[in-house]
Amino acid sequence: MNLRLWTALLLLGAANIAYDVRAEDDAMADIADASIEVDEGDATEGLHSFDERNGQSPQISQEVFAQMMESISPECRAAIQESPEDASKLSDECKEEVQSTLHRLMGGKPRDPNDPLTPEVFDKMMKIIPDDCRAEVEANPNDAAKISDRCKRRIQSTLETLLARQKKKAEAPPKAEEPTKPKGKQRRGKKEPKDNTSALLIVLGFVATAIAGVVGYAYVLNQKNAALQGATGPVDRTTQKKVSKHKKEKDMRRQQAAAAASIN
């Protein structure tokens, strides 16, 4: 059975313990071993990870690996058998199960699922550390003592920064939704109908004044005709009526035209 895939998972479990006891630089340096693949020959002899509790390197034997395969769920076991060399194809739940089971079989405490040191944080750390530190880790996957103190401190400080940033992001209150601004110009409401009472009264007053003027004009005209009749003799009543009627119609049309113009 190919064990190189599970070396990274177990060493990531060791990284969780190292995070809780950050004062021990050797434990933090061994965290970087999670990204290193180990040959099958090394896996047969026993894969190593740093144990900060006693300073010794516990071995992952084939017996322990077989016990792990028997302890995990059938779904996770099938996924491992399908992808024995590619951990990226495994679900996060399966990775957690494998890591916790190996850690328990090796005598450690089961990994807390709420532990902030996730595989994603570890991957970010490996990308951030300097190239020379990454090269040291890759060159010494089984011997943390060969990693320089400077790289150990850099790994520790990088993890602390990433974990603090992750904690701050998790504790940040959710942003309140800002009220969406209306797009474009808002449509104006319908204009209320204007009060035309005043205008109507003005028009009616103008019409009444015009009618009064016409009546007064007709009265004056009749007075003139009566005076003219007394001075020059009798006037033909029919002719007088026709002239008066024609004059009234003309004045009425003028009045209607003036009223219409004032309304417009």
TrEMBL record:
<keyword id="KW-0812">Transmembrane</keyword>
<feature type="region of interest" description="Disordered">
    <location>
        <begin position="230"/>
        <end position="264"/>
    </location>
</feature>
<keyword id="KW-1133">Transmembrane helix</keyword>
<feature type="region of interest" description="Disordered">
    <location>
        <begin position="164"/>
        <end position="194"/>
    </location>
</feature>
<protein>
    <submittedName>
        <fullName>Aste57867_25260 protein</fullName>
    </submittedName>
</protein>
<feature type="compositionally biased region" description="Basic residues">
    <location>
        <begin position="182"/>
        <end position="191"/>
    </location>
</feature>
<feature type="signal peptide">
    <location>
        <begin position="1"/>
        <end position="23"/>
    </location>
</feature>
<keyword id="KW-0472">Membrane</keyword>
<keyword id="KW-0732">Signal</keyword>
<feature type="compositionally biased region" description="Basic and acidic residues">
    <location>
        <begin position="169"/>
        <end position="181"/>
    </location>
</feature>
<feature type="transmembrane region" description="Helical">
    <location>
        <begin position="199"/>
        <end position="220"/>
    </location>
</feature>
